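Holo model, uridine-5'-diphosphate. Inputs:
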Amino acid sequence: MLLSQYRGIAPKGQIELLKILGGRLKGRSILNVNSTKAGGGVAELLHRIMPIINSMGINGRWEVIEGDNRFFDITKKIHNALQGNPETFTEEMWDYHFEINRQNVQNIDLGADFVFIHDPQPVPLIKFRQNGHWIWRCHIDMSTPQPDVAQRITDYAGLYESSIFSVDKFALQLPIHEFVVLPSIDPLSDKNRELTALEISEVAKKFDLPPDRPIVLQVSRFDRFKDPIGVIKAYRMVKKYNDCILVLAGSPAKDDPEGEEVLAEVQNFAEGDPDIRILLLPAFSDIEINALQRLADVVLQKSLKEGFGLTVSEAMWKGKPVIGGAVGGIPHQIVHGINGFLVYSEEGAAFRIRQYLNNTDMLKRMGEAAREHIRNNFLITRQIGDYLSICIGVENAGKAVIEIG
Ligand code: UDP
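Output:
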């Protein structure tokens, strides 16, 4: 995916800035290391970012550490504990975490001008630093971590030159430079690209969605923090006065027992109402999600706890002014009353749904503002610019003025 393909989509200034930053870093090498090539937002983003930076003449590489089930059980526990779910650790587990990273060093060339290590799985690699500037890129919510686990990770992270978090509230206190780089979406991916009328109508047909009735949508994993029951309650309040169909679309999450439980709860709660459509999407349903977001009249993301909330950016990019819970990264995206509404209750959500359904001019106006907000702030081009600026910044740390032109 070349930078020129974003011309006319991303803001002109962003592309011009990227050319300058890219020119400054031409011929330099940037290495990314994470723990998976497939699945999850980090891998998805790296797949999109790497070809772009390579097309700019930067030598970008992406390496993945390998581990066995025991390693990934441990790192999953680390992840959970850092996000605030208590877990128990033994000294052997921490030793194993380090040991697997040590073994990986034999297979990964860690030499690069800039090394971005993503998340806690490969964080111990800093012990094997050769040269270059090392940056720890944390994608997870560290706002309420389990203290002993946070301390272990801080011990490693503190050895880096800089760190990057996704939202200010998620940052750990570290003795090094900390940057905030908000997530972004790729307007050219299947999840976000323009679709043809035929592609959209095929999805409507597939899910039996009528063209002549308003659709209220939430796309989310079946997780209590996404409040699917609250969404149904809000819909029921609306339904007393306005006709609409509620679509709850999400993956069944077979590997997540709690996901199955929540799904069953939601199915039970929705029972008997043919206007509540629970759509179980298999993995890789990007075009379906894209089309559903375009088909919807009103999009909700009524989360009670949220990371950044990529679904909000995705829907806003499609011109939908989202009604979102005022949690996590959602208030970074929704400017209340301008390009969407922030809500704090089921009643609040119901009120805003009705406001939209009864005022299609406002819906359209706020939807246009939503798309422009995403264009200016949450496209992948902005995120690449942030990364390249950080490279230049760390290389020139301590200088009062850094010239990039
Ligand atoms: N998503 C998906 N299938 C689903 C539900 C969600 O592919 O069944 C996608 C969604 O479009 C978004 C991402 O998964 O790109 C979810 O990211 P978000 O930050 O909204 O929430 P998370 O699931 O990470 O808490």
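The longest helix spans residues 360-377. The chain has two domains: 3-184+380-395, 197-377.
Archived with the compound record.
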